[in-house]
Write a structure and sequence with these properties.
Elements: E1 4-7, H1 12-20, E2 33-34, H2 37-45, E3 57-60, E4 63-69, E5 74-76, H3 84-106, E6 110-115, H4 119-127, H5 129-136, E7 144-150, E8 163-166, H6 176-179, H7 190-197, H8 201-220, H9 226-258, E9 269-273, H10 277-286, E10 291-297, E11 304-305, E12 308-312, E13 323-326, H11 332-342, E14 350-352, H12 353-357
Parallel strand pairs: 1-6, 6-7, 7-8, 9-10, 9-13, 10-12, 13-14
Antiparallel strand pairs: 2-5, 3-4, 4-5, 11-12
């Protein structure tokens, strides 16, 4: 289990993609800069003792919002808001905080992600396995690195590190969505599934919500076109809805499994709206304690379940004294309106699943 997933560069796309997919919970020192891997390893090995030393820093004349550590070949292009002279003290303090958090996390078990920059780096990793492993695990033996390798690089035969292939012909970093979509270029979801299976669920959800909120702020800030704003807001809304559905689904399943149906007061005759997995679980738990007339579903995939008919919404005819229990409560209002308008069901005969347990 990884307590944290942390970017080791080489550029912003690694951390941006971690954010998009819910695996980035803090800002690290290598998140928003261009870096050489040997320099990254040097700083980790030496606890960042000469990181951003002023004697190694030079500004870039034609790029006033960037500065470079010429000794370690690192470029920082996200930190200057006014001028280098004015902002550098604040920048230094910010990176001290990031370094402190980074070092603390490395003591607790970290999965590092490094996008391989070029062929020389890939060859270096292959030839220096023991050295790199010693540096990466200096604070915790369980720390590990996953490498993302562009398909145009030639992986050496002696390269045995955990890696995923990026299906790209060149790194893209010219616009924001490309930076956030680096993991999407992997042929399948194997990296995301690996991280998801080894990462705390609650932290994952918190990270995802934070990123969605950040995206919504950017979309509403006026810094992007109207079309992009609308799409971003739509994506956020859809993601929130899906998270709500998944959370509600989990809660309903837990309630069903924990409920003691012997002590519940169920209506004497019911119809179950929703013939999916949860509706069927409810049937299995409730069938000995009430008379279940049928299932109702807007788009049924089956005609019956355990001998009980599954009726399409438009074909349902309400029975007297039958209570309809709505399983997908995240859409309760919409379903209630459909039942009353299409099937002439009385509102008083429609209840949400949660009310059964009240």
């Amino acid at each position: 289990m990884y307590n944290s997933v942390v970017s080791l560069g080489w550029f912003c796309a690694t951390s941006a993609s971690l954010s998009k997919n819910g695996f980035r919970s803090f800002s690290g020192p290598f998140d928003w800069c261009f870096s050489e891997y040997e320099s990254v390893l040097h700083f980790i090995e030496n606890d960042f003792k000469d990181f951003l030393s002023i004697e190694n820093i030079e500004t870039i004349d034609d790029k006033p919002k960037e500065f470079k550590d010429f000794k370690y070949s690192m470029i920082f292009n996200h930190d200057i808001h006014n001028s280098f002279a004015e902002d550098f003290p604040t920048i230094k303090e910010k990176y001290i905080r990031r370094i402190h958090r980074f070092l603390q996390e490395t003591k607790n078990g970290v999965c590092f992600i490094r996008a391989v920059k070029h062929q020389q780096e890939l060859d270096y990793i292959a030839c220096n396995h023991s050295k790199i492993h010693k540096i990466i695990t200096k604070n915790n033996i369980d720390n590990t690195v996953i490498y993302l390798i562009p398909k145009y690089l030639s992986t050496p035969k002696n390269f045995h590190e955990k890696n995923y292939i990026l299906n790209i012909n060149v790194y893209q970093g010219n616009f924001r969505e490309a930076l956030r979509s680096l993991f999407d270029t992997i042929q399948d979801d194997s990296l995301l599934l690996h991280l998801k299976n080894n990462y705390p669920e609650t932290i994952y959800k918190d990270n995802l919500i934070f990123d969605l909120q950040s995206e919504l702020k950017i979309a509403q800030s006026g810094n992007s076109s109207h079309v992009i704003q609308l799409q971003a807001i739509r994506d956020v809304d859809n993601a929130y809805r899906q998270m709500s559905i998944n959370e509600t689904r989990w809660q309903r399943l837990m309630k069903l499994h924990r409920a003691n149906f012997c002590h519940l007061t169920l209506p004497s005759s019911i119809a179950i709206y929703g013939a999916g997995d949860i509706g069927k679980v409810f049937y299995d738990r409730a069938k000995d304690f009430t008379n279940i007339q049928c299932f109702i579903d807007k788009n049924p995939c089956e005609k019956e379940y355990m001998g009980v008919p599954i009726i399409k919404l438009t074909n349902y005819k309400p029975e007297p004294d039958t209570t309809i229990i709505v399983i997908p409560t995240y859409a309760y209002t919409e379903i209630r309106n459909d039942l009353t308008s299409i099937c002439n069901v009385k509102i008083s005969s429609i209840v949400a699943l949660e009310t059964v347990f009240d």
